[in-house]
Amino acid sequence: MSVHAGRMRVSIAVVLLVGLCLGPTPTVAHQCFCGVRRAQNETIYPDHPIEPGEWPWHTLIYHWPGPKLYPPARICEGALIDERFVLAAAHCLMVGGAGRKGELLPADQLVVHVGVVAVQQDHDQSRRFRVRNVTVEDESDLALIELVVVQEPPRVLPLGMPLLDSEEGSGEEQPGGWKPTPVCLVDALDLTTLYGTEMYILNQSQRTRLGGYEPVRLVLDEFLLCTGSTLAMKSRSINGTTVSFTIKDLNLPSHDRGTGLYFKHQGTWSLLGFTVARATRQWTPGSVCLPNDIISFDCLYPALDWVMENFADTNS
């Protein structure tokens, strides 16, 4: 595992969608595309379980030390941005849990489940991978996870935990029949142009313990309005490169797993950012907004140069 700390560069300019591909030039067999939902129609139904292929970049990250007495624990969410790279919030990959400062969990103890629709449930459009390397950008709280992509599909072990084969054989190829669909990234974005935009997070159903994920719709308003018994207060929803939403009536879980925020732009779906670490949230004394009434996301576009630099380093 390597740790790379870089400097962020914030630029407000024209919106540009960036689809990331392996290698300097995409081959005919693997064209560079991103942000395409494989759904029967474009309608998104909040509070209904997602189906395979609807959010193919949705990723869960498990910590699994290995012994069968310790089943894998879901620790973080992420998003596939390339056929062998996943982006996640770095704070939820720390030893000791989300928000803790210190060392990252060992890469060889992480398992990444791409295309997931429910915890520990596999289907023909999902795959699990071991992790080759994790690189962190401290200022933006991002982790770039490089997957071990092997030729053969995983074999299933007890506890329903597939274990990918080691790096043997003729080279790294996609597991049989699996076609990755990454999410798009957005560079140089003026966040104020997104007022009124519908955005979505994927939330695990609260009706059953291992329920499937469901889309939750969030609309970016200019102000957050929090009401109390005798007063109301509003604040701006955009603070630098952080966006916030009021979620008082949405019954979202209080734990932080680095949830991704998605929105549709120019016909494709893009990743805007991940939830802010609770330990770093600033709170205004006397506010009538309770911490669990608001959900905030750090936008990732200021660190896109860092992501591209690491792609270049890995593929060189």
Judged by helices, strands and strand pairing, the structural class is: mainly beta
- The poorly predicted ranges are 1-19, 21-31, 151-173
Name the beta content range.
25-35%
> Order of helices and strands, N to C?
EEEEEEEEEEEEEEEEEEEH
Apparent shape: globular
N- to C-terminal separation? 18 Å
Give the assembly state of these chains: single chain
Say how many strands there are. 19
Rg to the nearest angstrom?
Answer: 19 Å
Q: Helix tally?
A: 1
Helix content: under 10%
Largest sheet: 9 strands, mixed
Average per-residue pLDDT, rounded, comes to 76
Structural account:
- The chain has 316 residues and is mainly beta.
- The chain contains 1 helix and 19 strands.
- The strands form 4 sheets. Strands 1, 10, 11, 12, 15, 16, 17, 18 and 19 form a 9-stranded mixed β-sheet that branches. A 6-stranded antiparallel beta barrel has the order 2-3-4-7-6-5.
- A hairpin with an 8-residue loop joins strand 11 (198-204) and strand 12 (213-219).
- The longest helix has 12 residues, at 304-315.
- The protein is globular, with a radius of gyration of 19 Å.
Protein topology:
Layout: E1 16-18, E2 58-63, E3 73-82, E4 85-89, E5 110-114, E6 127-137, E7 142-148, E8 155-157, E9 161-163, E10 184-187, E11 198-204, E12 213-219, E13 223-227, E14 232-236, E15 238-239, E16 242-246, E17 260-265, E18 268-275, E19 294-299, H1 304-315
Parallel strand pairs: 10-18
Antiparallel strand pairs: 1-10, 2-3, 2-5, 3-4, 4-7, 5-6, 6-7, 8-9, 11-12, 11-17, 13-14, 15-16, 16-19, 17-18, 18-19
